[in-house]
């Protein structure tokens, strides 16, 4: 039987998210603080960023703020509306009265329509579960790697509010206990229906030195090319409160997606805080071909899905690779489209629509060409059938908006080609490490992988610095040549280190089999091949010729294949 005395106690409690502090922020002076929704918008010019318990929580909270801003401002409708907001320091003034009008839907503890929850949600046996189910920094089976060991017994109301938002965005998949009224329950359980909506995405958004600018730059206009926003688009708090179970429906736009109710939740609490939760599946939503609705991720064509579904094109979100730093994948951020398999084919990749929006601001002169933005990339890596979060990617790339300019693609092309320069140098270094290992009679895979990882690490900071300065140059091609010379010097110096560390065995060498017969391979010959590869791919460090082609295989790769 339900505990009526507990229900009475809960009726008397309230935690109004519009007035109570619960959002962690970092001020531009470096001070940390916790603010209410109202305070965040009132002080947005004085804040640097949101700082969540996890990067994914930060992403989810930014999307919540964007949904509020879109709805409170009813737009922006077009670029002129946006320009008016950009020039107005009090651009979020309307948010205060908006929150007043909807304050009843922002009470975390309300008994009729609690924020992002389902009133009265219960299982058949009235079970209340551990808060581990919504606190994502408690890894299943690995409590020793958590600050909360081994369980979460209690949360403050502020903490609980943040994890409720995060659960809708990133909750894991897997079998969940069924709740009363959910028609999907079989044998007391609901079988896997996928992760929270944002968990499908390789999250991307634009950051600036103040939260005000960050929010405005991610506030895509309704007429943005490639983004479809219906007139009836609305966030969760302007829709009827969710009942148990899920509702299959199409998304109406960004306000809807940023607050999509992928779960059904109910917190259990007393006057001291939250001590339990009921959690079930909510509204299902497939990420397939949602590229015209969801602006905060890049997209890739899936030939496998096209074959399976017999439709074309099929786009899926491009997730982040934890093994690949953001600067190495810059093409997915700044290339307007990547070509399909044939000239008439749909693009193989689409950049995030939020970057298309910033590109439009740059192309139409609302932002100066040298205006610096930071593309922040955040996303989880799920494991074991998406039932756990294994890793979280959190990275960024700073660049001038000229790289996104739609009419002048020279800067973007050279920025992408510069990454390819780094790739070719790293391939050459990997081949050098392989040849040195073969010369010493050692295993080759480990030394090659280690050398390549280290080489990318050596090139990361120089590339990021070069990319930030690229917008200041009048000649991106000259800047590319300067970058090639820098890459050559870094690679050559690291090659010297590898050769010196290879030892006497590699110096003496040994006979190895090649496709052309046998060859006496030692560190001297390996070094010679390495220098030839660098010269062909990057030119001499003192040369000033044109940039090499980027679509040819390197001689160093050919050499290593001949040896194997």
From TrEMBL:
It comes from the Bacteria. InterPro entries: CRISPR-assoc_prot_Cse1 (IPR013381). CDD domains: Cse1_I-E. Keywords: Plasmid. Pfam families: CRISPR_Cse1. This is Type I-E CRISPR-associated protein Cse1/CasA. Gene3D superfamilies: 1.10.132.100. Residues 538-564 are annotated as: Disordered.
